[in-house]
Design brief:
- It is a single chain.
- The protein has 15 helices and 16 strands.
- It is an alpha/beta fold.
- The protein has two domains: about 325 residues, TIM Barrel, CATH 3.20.20; about 120 residues, Sandwich (Immunoglobulin-like), CATH 2.60.40.
- An eight-stranded parallel beta barrel has the order 1-2-3-4-5-6-7-8. It has a five-stranded antiparallel sheet with strand order 9-10-11-16-13, covered by helices on one side.
- Strand 10 and strand 11 form a beta hairpin.
- Helix 6 packs parallel to helix 14.
- The longest helix has 20 residues.
- The two termini are about 25 Å apart.
- The N terminus is likely disordered.
- This is alpha-L-fucosidase.
- It comes from Chitinophaga agri.
- Its EC number is 3.2.1.51.
- Keywords: Glycosidase, Hydrolase, Signal.
């Protein structure tokens, strides 16, 4: 009951109108704001990692093999990964070829923002988050701080693309009816001022640059990152958030994550949502979001093969699992340097959208039920609970196994309807410890077949024995009881 009470409290917080009040630059005040309700109702967003790193588009394949970290692995790291990246770089580009020289090859000449937005809409996502600037410091919009501090064109407008990549995509995404947000890295690995005087960097580069981004493009989401080398005080994050919540043009709508200092991740949930990265996620009672790539990397990695990409059905299971626990999925794609979304990524997104077209009622605007999932008999597999690299694979947990129990179904609810998202067909679907109202009816989303249910002790038995091949839209189908 405690878990349900906490989630109900969170819903009250996030669904209430944000009061027109002034927030001071401290967490006690900022946490009173709450999180705009639209975010937790949206459930599904698209993450995009795109920058100069799309030119080499190389990383050692495996967990944490992030191609967007190429420059750091090349010049900042001192480990086996560094050796492999350095060997690749020297062989293909030469020992004297600097990372900054890749910018001349970041042309984005095939970039079609309308086509991107169309794919995102067809995926069923409700919001998009683009890397406005990653740790390399390169901005996808025209920003004077980037150029002045680097002493060279270091944004997409003054640089090689000669185009406001961020602005053009923002316009098309909004035309498609989706909300637009931005990832923004607080720090930059090799920024000369950051290396010399961190306090001056925060005051003279990061803060005005952040305000420039927000004022010009009015994001609905800000995914802050790169916070771990300093506390929130050193970043002056409370001051920046007070400006965001009080004075910015998006003060009422904008949603922000929990990455604002080495001491903030996992905290301050009154003002920020919690982030999980290739993690096991969280349980009902908090507002949270899981981010993952379709493969191992966020940025495009040419070394990944078809075996490194999650299957479409597995991605749907990932989404369902997260939503059943009250979270959002932010699924990442990595475009190429010439501006294309790899076709395999497009296919995965469109496949998710096809499932949501039929079953989205069980996903959008839902809340968790008293149980998030139902297991078969047997010992449940061990789960490492962590918000980063937990090796949590829910796609394996739905498969029958001699060693462990498997997940038979996930649950969500909306109003007085219970949605049972089954992971496989059974003639008799037993929903444990559930007693519907006597007048309740059972149905299958996307099907006009009539099904019945009966009460058997504490359990509800839904009769699916009359179904024939083709009556179900796939292995993952939804039984609605209302």
């Amino acid at each position: 009951m405690k878990k349900i009470f906490l989630y109900a409290a969170a819903l009250l917080l996030t669904s209430a109108p944000l009061a027109a009040q002034h927030y001071t630059a401290d967490w006690a005040s900022l946490n009173k704001r709450g999180i705009p309700a639209w975010f937790n109702q949206a459930k599904f967003g698209i993450f995009i990692h795109w920058g100069v790193y799309a030119v080499p588009s190389f990383a050692v394949v495996g967990p944490g093999g992030y191609s967007e970290w190429y420059w750091y692995q090349l010049d900042g790291a001192n480990d086996d990964t560094h050796k492999k990246v350095r060997a690749f770089h020297d062989k293909n580009y030469g020992k004297d070829f600097s990372y900054q020289q890749f910018e001349s090859q970041f042309k984005a000449e095939l970039f079609d923002p309308a086509q991107w937005a169309d794919v995102f809409k067809r995926s069923g996502a409700k919001y998009v988050v683009l890397t406005s600037k990653h740790h390399e410091g390169y901005c996808l919009w025209d920003n004077k701080q980037a150029d002045s501090i680097w002493g060279r064109p270091w944004n997409a407008v003054t640089g090689t693309p000669k185009r406001d990549l961020l602005g053009d995509l923002t316009s098309e995404v909004r035309k498609a009816g989706l909300k637009m947000g931005y990832y923004y890295s607080l720090y930059e690995w090799f920024n000369p001022l950051w290396k010399k005087d961190k306090a001056s960097y925060v005051k003279n580069v990061m803060t005005p640059q952040f305000k420039d981004l927000v004022t010009k493009y009015k994001p609905s989401v800000i995914f802050s990152d790169g916070e771990w080398e300093q506390s929130d005080t050193a970043w002056r994050s409370p001051e920046l958030l007070a400006w965001l919540f009080n004075e910015s043009p998006v003060n009422d709508e904008v949603v922000v994550d929990d990455r604002w200092g080495s001491n903030t991740r996992g905290n301050n949930n009154g003002a920020t949502y919690l982030t999980s990265e290739y993690g096991s996620g969280m349980q009902p009672g908090v507002v949270w979001e899981e981010s993952q790539g379709i493969g191992n990397s966020y940025g495009y990695n040419r070394m990944e093969t078809v075996n490194d990409y999650k299957k479409s059905n597995d991605l749907v299971v990932l989404l369902v699992d997260i939503v059943s626990r009250g979270g959002n999925l932010l699924l990442d794609i990595g475009p190429t340097a010439d501006g294309r979304i790899p076709v395999i990524m497009q296919q995965r997104l469109v496949d998710i959208g096809a499932w949501l077209e039929v079953n989205g009622e069980a996903i959008y605007n839902t809340t968790p039920w008293k149980e998030t999932r139902q297991w078969s008999a047997g010992n449940r597999p061990p789960v490492k609970e962590a918000s980063y690299m937990s090796d949590y694979n829910v796609a394996k947990m739905i498969k029958p196994s001699k060693e462990y129990a498997h997940i038979e179904m996930f649950f969500t609810k909306k109003d007085n309807a219970l949605y049972c998202i089954a992971t496989g067909y059974q003639p008799q679907l037993r929903i444990k410890d559930f007693a519907p109202a006597k007048q309740a009816k059972a149905s299958i989303l996307g099907s006009n077949k009539t099904i019945s249910w009966k009460q058997q002790g504490k359990d509800c038995i839904v009769d699916l024995s009359g179904l024939r091949p083709g009556d179900l839209t796939g292995n993952l189908f939804v039984v609605k009881v209302r």
